[in-house]
Amino acid sequence: MKDVLDELAAVHRRMGTGSLPAGEAYTVELRRRYDAEIDDVWDAITRPERLRRWLRPVTGDLRLGGTFELEGGEHGEILRCEPPRLLGVSWLFGPEADAWPGTSEVDVRLAPDPTGGTEFTLIHAAAVGEPMFPTYGPGAGGVGWDLALLTLARLLADGEIADHEEFGKSSDGREFSRRSAAAWGRAHLAAGGEPEQVAAAVAATTAFYVPDPT
């Protein structure tokens, strides 16, 4: 469990604001370092054979301007691709999402560090009107990304094949998700969230990711 919590502590989380084609947006930002060369990290986030090992299987026309779909429903368009430093996609979920283009985007930015590792930044921007935010706050997507980046860390470290959704159901995974939800609550407070609203959002996020087993 200590290694898992060390990975949780390795991530710097921030909630902010931004803009999308659909208008004003809120952002969740996850920033951390991976002890792997930038080309290796880029390969892990773009090659389908490796992407499926830490996120989910992906299909589609995987080039700039093409579209993708993850097993489970997330889909979108590849908006930006500058190997090995920037990947940007629209990020939609469910068929009804196509009625609101420009409402959610994910950027992954990579930069080499002097020690041979890689600085990794993921920014997920979602339109302010997106219905999950008032209930769950930044943890709505933040906890899921925390779980995915933990699995990516394992893949980069030793090639381990893992399923972050299955891990989330384990006792260690449930504790990780609880602590991740609390960490996103702290990021929400730091961004100016009202304490009562933040506490309610953390409770809702925790209940979503760590449901009562009974």
From TrEMBL:
<dbReference type="InterPro" id="IPR013538">
    <property type="entry name" value="ASHA1/2-like_C"/>
</dbReference>
<feature type="domain" description="Activator of Hsp90 ATPase homologue 1/2-like C-terminal">
    <location>
        <begin position="35"/>
        <end position="156"/>
    </location>
</feature>
<comment type="similarity">
    <text>Belongs to the AHA1 family.</text>
</comment>
<dbReference type="Pfam" id="PF08327">
    <property type="entry name" value="AHSA1"/>
</dbReference>
<protein>
    <recommendedName>
        <fullName>Activator of Hsp90 ATPase homologue 1/2-like C-terminal domain-containing protein</fullName>
    </recommendedName>
</protein>
<dbReference type="InterPro" id="IPR023393">
    <property type="entry name" value="START-like_dom_sf"/>
</dbReference>
